[in-house]
Amino acid sequence: MEWNFNVQHEFVQDWVAQVAYVGTRGLHLWNHESSNLNQPPLPLDSNFSVGNFGRPYYDRLPNLDVILPWNFPELSLAYHAFEASLNKRFSQGFNIMASYTFAKNLGTADGNVAAEIQNAYDIAAEKGPVQPDQRHRFVVSYLWEVPFGHGKRFGANLPKAADLALGGWQISGITLWHSGEAYTAGLSFDQTNTGAGGRPDRIHNPYDFSFDTATQAALGCSNPGHQTLDCFYNQAAFVVPPLAPGQTFAHLYGNGGRTNLRGPDQRNFDFAILKNFRITERHQLQFRAELFNLFNTPQFALPNGTVDVEGGASISSTLPDNQREIQLALKWSF
């Protein structure tokens, strides 16, 4: 289900402001291969010691390994957002629209196949931000017809040759900024010995780099105490959970939760210049120069999320196809 409420107000001619609240709620969402229904219920050393021992269905079918749910309705999510925008309608050769969204997307579902629910018997423990959960998003788009040339405020009486060169220019662009995407911290091994993958305990704020610089150095950070590309978060904020009662190597489930880290912010500037050449009353030529990612700003991918290995907090790649691109075009209208 979904609901919304918004208020619009035109405070001067052609300028409209809007604020809105938007909410959605999803219940009984499908668990699509995100947990193992044959997962041993307790962290025990003896799990898997003989065949399927420890798994609920180990005595039903020899060597039965993983049971993946197929569209099993047990997950949920809730989305709440505050939205604000300011729009100048196109007039006098100018249009601009700016919008800002503050949103929270929380629940136990993220829509991903094989999302690795830590404990198939405690779905409620999976509650957290639902990916991508970009909390802040700001977008500005604009179009300006340069007021110079035939039929414009300035240079209306230019000779035809001068107007062909100087008149008819337009400038447009889109600027985007959004905060980092949520993702999950994990361990390099299955500490519970239940086959569910590993999650750590969280003992500190992972973005406080003043905490435990010795561990940061031991894990290969190039500048301990500071955020860098090779240590985007502080791995020392996470530890392996304690041993389960009476066990020698099976540890408890981690309390760090799901989607407990944030990737880098993203910034992008797209820009375009257009020039209209009026050849005759019936023939017009348009030149377009479009620059995507104008400043060639690096768009970094999510960092590694493995907290217990060297390089486990590093950013090693950028998003594909986000380098600066320049596109030139001519269009003839008749």
Salient structural properties:
single chain, 334 residues, mainly beta, 2 domains, ten-stranded antiparallel sheet, two-stranded antiparallel sheet, 2 helices, 14 strands, elongated
How would you describe the overall organization of this protein?
There is one protein chain. With 334 residues, the protein is mainly β. It contains 2 helices and 14 strands; from the N terminus they run E-E-E-E-E-E-H-E-E-E-H-E-E-E-E-E. It has helices spanning 160-166, 213-218; strands spanning 2-12, 15-31, 72-91, 94-107, 128-129, 136-145, 169-178, 182-183, 201-202, 238-239, 261-262, 266-278, 284-292, 325-333. Strands 1, 2, 3, 4, 5, 6, 7, 12, 13 and 14 form a 10-stranded antiparallel β-sheet that branches. Strands 8-11 form a two-stranded antiparallel sheet. A hairpin with a 2-residue loop joins strand 1 and strand 2 (15-31). The longest helix is centred in the middle third of the chain and has 7 residues, at 160-166. The model has no long low-confidence stretch (mean pLDDT 90).
Radius of gyration: 28 Å
Question: How many strand units?
Answer: 14
Secondary structural class: mainly beta
The largest sheet is: 10 strands, antiparallel
Q: In whole angstroms, how far apart are the ends?
A: 49 Å
Give the secondary structure arrangement, pairings included.
Elements: E1 2-12, E2 15-31, E3 72-91, E4 94-107, E5 128-129, E6 136-145, H1 160-166, E7 169-178, E8 182-183, E9 201-202, H2 213-218, E10 238-239, E11 261-262, E12 266-278, E13 284-292, E14 325-333
Antiparallel strand pairs: 1-2, 2-3, 3-4, 4-5, 4-6, 6-7, 7-12, 8-11, 9-10, 12-13, 13-14
